[in-house]
Structure formats: structure tokens, C-alpha cells
Amino acid sequence: MSRDWPLFALVTAAVASYPALVLSGCVLTLLSGKAAARELWLDGHPGALLAPVLAGVSAIAVVNAARVLARGLWHTHRFHRWIAGLRTPAPSTGLARPGALEGVQVIPAREPLAVTVGLWRPYVVVSSGLVAELSEQELRAVLAHEQAHVRRRDPLRLLLGRTLAAHLWFLPVAADLRGRARRGYELAADRHAAKRCGRAAVAGALLRVAALPPASPAFAAHFAGPELLDARVSQLESGRPPRPAAISRRRAALTVAGGLVFALVVAAAWTFMLLTCPCVMPLQVA
């Protein structure tokens, strides 16, 4: 997990913010049913006044995360069904090793496609058009890249990262961490493929696929935009992963501000709970 620090940071931040969901519900419950709580509300206690804000932030976080998770699961399900209707026996590719495509789903499509599909049991899908375009070594490099995604269950990690970033919507840097996580997965898969097939084969496959006409919207977008392509080429040239672009000062400042405001709202809500919670009241009277 230490190598996957962007996802670890997202998990940590999400876990740290999760108790706020329960806290906001408790505060709103007290405000609706306890006389002491209503008095503090009328007196303008910060915790009572900010409770609706905390509830709103928490509600948006839950809705965003649920929406992203549901969309990811739905698209994965649809892609599974689409592939199931296109399955075909592996074509003859002239590979020296007959089992090179064993366990790989080959679909009859001219568009260049090589993608890892599935969350709990991921598998590799390639198009017949891509198989026909690549040389034997280049195809082996592509398959080695995708097998690295399979072993690490990167599709599941990507969905988790998107869900957590949506949950942490009030921290702009969460989206940057999600992007860094995806970048790290692609670079790690390229390093694995380079060890098995050589950097020349990986670079040849990457550049050849990038030069082909893009896949239609019906296909999953796997070879990402220019920035990620540049990072992958740079790693193949130098033999080490390039440093990611620094987070902008504006986004860092907004993240710090969002985190401080969230912490202050939570602290005010906890203060309100200590003043109104029945288990604390006897200690206050004594």
C-alpha cells in the first residue's frame, strides 16, 4: 500500500471524515427532540447553527460517492454483457508460443483496444484489429501490461479512487490524488511489461497504438490523453518514472481552507453534543 500512496491518502481522508455523517445525524436529532438543544439553537450556539451545514456537506458527500459508485458498477456490467456477445475464438496470429492469448478475450473489432475489465475477477480484452496491427513482441508487451493490471486489480482500485474523490468533494486535491493514482497504475504496468518484454517492445506498442485512429465511444478509453502518454514515454526513455506535476497553489489553498472549515464545523458540532448529550448532563449538574 505504501507504493499506492494517493489511494491510501484518499482512504485515510474519507475514513477521517466519515464520523461526521453520524455526528450530523445526532445533532439534528437532538435539535428536533431535546429542549436543551432547542434553547442552544435559539441562543445562537455555533454548534447548533452549523449543524445543518455539516449535514449538508455530509449528504452531498454520500450522494456523490453513491452516484459515482453506481455509475462505475453499471458501466462495468454493461461492458461485461457487451463483451459476452462478441466473444470469438482467438485468431491465428503467428505467435511462436500458441498459448500467448490464453485467458484473453479477443473481440471482433477493428478499433484498437486492449483493456482490463472486471472488479473482483478482472480479465484482459483485446480487439482483433489491435492483434492484427501489432508485431509479436509488441502484442506480448501489451498483454504483459494488461496482466499487471489484472494481478493488482487496478480496475477496482480506480473505481475506489473515483468514489473516494467524489466523497471528498470539498477537498479539491482529492481529484488530483485520483489522477495520480491512475497515472501510477499505468506506469507500474509499463515497468512490468518492460521487464518481461523489453522497453523497445513496450515503446513500439505504445507509439503504434497512439498513432492508430482512436477507438469509438463504444469502447473503453484505455490509452489516456497526451499528459499520461508523455509520462509513459518518458519512463521508457529514462528507465524511471517521471515526477508528477505539482499541485497548483490555488487548489492546495482551497483544499486547506476546505479542510479547516470542515474541521471547525465538526468541532462546533462536538461541542454542541457535549452540552446536550444525556450521558454528559449529570456530570455538568454535579
UniProtKB/TrEMBL annotation:
Transmembrane segments: none annotated. InterPro entries: Beta-lactam_resp_regulator (IPR052173), Peptidase_M56 (IPR008756). PROSITE patterns: PROKAR_LIPOPROTEIN. It comes from Prauserella muralis. This is Peptidase M56 domain-containing protein. It comes from the Bacteria. Residues 115-234 form the Peptidase M56 domain. It holds the Pfam family Peptidase_M56.
